[in-house]
Amino acid sequence: MNPLLIPFDTAPFSKIKNEHFKPAFFKAIETARAEINTITENPDAPTFENTIEALEFSGQQLDRISSVFFNLNSAETNEEIQKIAQVVSPLLSEFGNDITLNEALFKRIKTVFEENGALNLSVEQNTLLDKRYKSFSRNGANLSEDKKKRLREIDAEASKLKLKFGENILAETNTYQKYISNEADLEGLPEGAKEAAAQLAKSKGKEEGWLLTLDYPSYIPFMKYAEDRELRKELSLAFGSKAFKGDALDNQQIVLTIANLRYERANLLGYQTHAHFVLEERMAETPEKVHSFLNELLKKAKPAAAREFKQLEDFAKDLDGIDQLQKWDSSYYSEKLKQKLFSLDDEQLKPYFKLENVIDGVFQIAEKLFGLQFKEVSDIDKYNEEVKTYRVYDADKNFISIFYADFHPRAGKRGGAWMTSFKSQWKKDGENVRPHISNVCNFTPSTKTKPSLLSFNEVTTLFHEFGHGLHGMLANTTYPSLSGTSVYWDFVELPSQVLENWCYEKEALELFAKHYETGEVIPMTLVQKIKESAAFQEGIATMRQLSFALLDMSWHGADPTNITDVKRHESKAFAGTNLYPDTAETCMSTAFAHIFQGGYSSGYYSYKWAEVLDADAFAYFKEKGIFNKEVATKFKDNVLSKGGTENPMVLYKRFRGAEPKVEALLERAGLL
Predict the structure, then answer these.
(1) Same domain? 313 vs 207
(2) Which residues contact 74 (CB under 8 A, 6 or more apart)?
(3) Based on the domain organization, do 227 and 100 belong to the same domain?
(4) How many CB atoms lie within 10 A of CB 541?
């Protein structure tokens, strides 16, 4: 029997073989089609229950199989899985279109939608109805037949191109390996990073020497600490030129095609651009509002960034006689300057951030704030031995969630860090079905002599993803499509970014920042330095984020049909935010997975948007105490548990009592 087609609770990873996926998808699509037919062929008049709710709970088997498959394609992929993805992605896209372009189904939904005033629905039911109607109208249900056909073609092509885009980046990342035989080339690199590089070389069959790759745990320490400027340049150019070499793995044409397909799709649906289409369903609402938000921040950040950059230039000149700072100098001299100004070095901090202690710390914080308890268990099936599994309970011992944690890089795992789910939360027939949530990261692994010790940046990443995780775990809604992180994209980063704030607080750090050898709690002098250095080069960092957001809007907020040169277009978009000289051989767009592979197209601004929300929200915690139960409960009840059941600004105001103020962010970042 195909394990994916037998009802399962936790995913039966050990029983699943690659050959199970295609037949499972075919069968589940067939089942989901039958469920849709049951709705459309119902002789009774359309009601909320027999149409909207019936549609909401259809296709659940397909959803489960999809979540297992696509999570594996991100965290444990191989060539075979990638090939299957190329087959099933267009099928799923076509099936999605078959639903949204199903006239009989849309007719029933439209009937319910138009009767809404007389239906006496709850707030959540109203949201679901509105969302369901829009998911049809925004995906072509009101179009003529020929336009519907074109829409299907666009969606099938775009889904394949997005996959190819990601595969090319992963292949480029895996292809680059820099073998070092002379230890002098690693001057400046911390012992832990050196040991990891030697371990990596051994794993690739080299008895001697060190291996550097473009994976973050290898790349970032090298760019930050290695004294060899030429080697830093080589790695920086390799990293920055991913999928931009004019070869079989090049993404330039893919970028142009995706941007044009999105524009054409938006026009078909009656929108000016892809950004107009996307932002209709965001807190920001319009491209004009996004541009005005970004430009306001740019105006505030630019003078600070210019001052910080001048300070960095002068420092590099005095220290090493560098006349012109380049991109491959940024991390290196920033780190040196930070050490000089704050006597603070990541290597000083790492011994206090043993991975297991940080995990324990984030669990303790979740317990203090929300009463959650995490119990590590070994009876849950997992897709890789490295994955840790937990059952989560509340203060009254009620089961809340399954939690998977997967923390280290491997060949089949894409870079970066993310939260995902293997099963949503919903309520049906008197049962509250609880979610299965996963955090996936790429942290420095342990070596022969040292456990996994995190950089402070990795600590904040762990807290960030865990914040998303809490949003998933504490979900408490009726409908799966409104549950957990199923919220507007410019609201989804609030739970993750707000949790990062605890990493800077003495009361929180004392819980888990303990020296891995002596058990000594992190000295308060270091905590003070972490806090003081938090706003270090915040102007430069803000400019960087704004440049990415403006690049995203340049691809999606205007007509892209006349763009022929990806690099030239990108340079124009970056013109107002550039600090470093451009390098002809690098290109951001061809590896900008957030917007060309992930779901952030026209949405990259939401990182800064959510920072405004998170700075404002945390100011409330600071005012009342960072472990204040009353504020934490308000946050849980109005934000974390509510998912997408109401407009996010309504939810936020219910938690905070007012709309968020941009000043909270500017103050925290030292930009006022």
Answers:
(1) no
(2) 413, 414, 418, 420, 440
(3) no
(4) 16
* Nearest of 432, 444, 409 to residue 173 by alpha carbon: 409
Give residue for tokens 């119990």: 375
Strand-strand pairing, 373-376 and 210-213: unpaired
Tell me, what CATH number does 479's domain have? 1.10.1370.40
Same-domain check for residues 122 and 210 = no
Distance CA 401, CA 211 (A): 40
Residues in the chain: 672
Domain assignment present for 168? no
Which position among 465, 493, 505, 570 bears the catalytic label?
465
Task: Specify if 245 maps to a domain.
Answer: no
For residue range 543-578, list pLDDT tens digits in order: 999 999 999 999 999 999 999 999 999 999 999 999
Closest CA to 471 of 490, 503, 493, 504: 493
Query: Using one digit for the tens of pLDDT, what is the confidence trace for 263-298?
Result: 999 999 999 999 999 999 999 999 999 999 999 999
Q: Domain count of the chain?
A: 4
Mapped onto helix, strand or coil, the DSSP state of residue 230 is helix
Q: Is 359 helix (H, G, I), strand (E, B) or coil?
A: helix
Inter-residue contact 644 to 488 (CB < 8 Å)? yes
Residues 199 and 290 both lie in one domain: no
233 class by beta-carbon count within 10 Å (0-12 exposed, 13-18 middle, 19+ buried): middle
DSSP 415-441: SS-EEEEEE--EEETTEEEPPEEEEE-
At which residue do the structure tokens 């690659």 appear?
18
Instruction: Please give the order of strands across the beta sheet that includes 418-423.
Output: 373-376, 388-393, 399-406, 436-440, 418-423
Q: Which domain holds residue 411?
A: 351-518
SS (H, E, C) 84-150: HHHHHHHHHHHHHHHHHCCHHHHHHHHHHHHCHHHCCCCHHHHHHHHHHHHHHHCCCCCCCHHHHHH
**117 has pLDDT over 90:** no
* 424 in Cβ contact with 484 (< 8 Å): yes
Whether the Cβ atoms of residue 440 and residue 417 lie closer than 8 Å to each other: yes
Instruction: State which amino acid sits at residue 474.
Output: L
Q: Three-state SS for 213?
A: strand
pLDDT, average across residues 172-194: 95
CA–CA separation, 200 and 209 (whole Å): 10
**Domain match, 655 and 554 both:** yes
pLDDT band at 489 (very low <50, low <70, confident <90, very high): confident
The verdict on residue 100 lying in a domain is yes
Q: Are strands 436-440 and 399-406 parallel, antiparallel or unpaired?
A: parallel
| Annotation marks residue 646 as catalytic | no
pLDDT at 173 over 90: yes
Is residue 605 pLDDT above 90, yes or no?
yes
Predicted TM-score of the model (pTM): 0.83
* CA separation for the pair 545, 665 (Å, rounded): 14
508's tokens: 């929180």
Contact 454, 505 (CB under 8 A): no
Same domain, 316 and 356: no
Are 481 and 357 within one domain?
yes
What does the block give as tokens for 341? 């100004």
Contacts within 8 Å (CB) and 24+ apart, 390-394: 392/473, 394/370
- Same-domain check for residues 508 and 620: no
Give residue-wise pLDDT tens across range 408-434.
Answer: 999 899 888 999 999 999 999 999 999
Q: Which of 216, 240, 264 is the last residue of a domain?
A: 240
Has residue 2 been placed in a domain? no
Give 100's pLDDT tier (boundaries 50, 70, 90).
confident
- Number of helical H runs and strand E runs in the chain: 27, 9
Tokens of residue 260, six digits: 């044009």
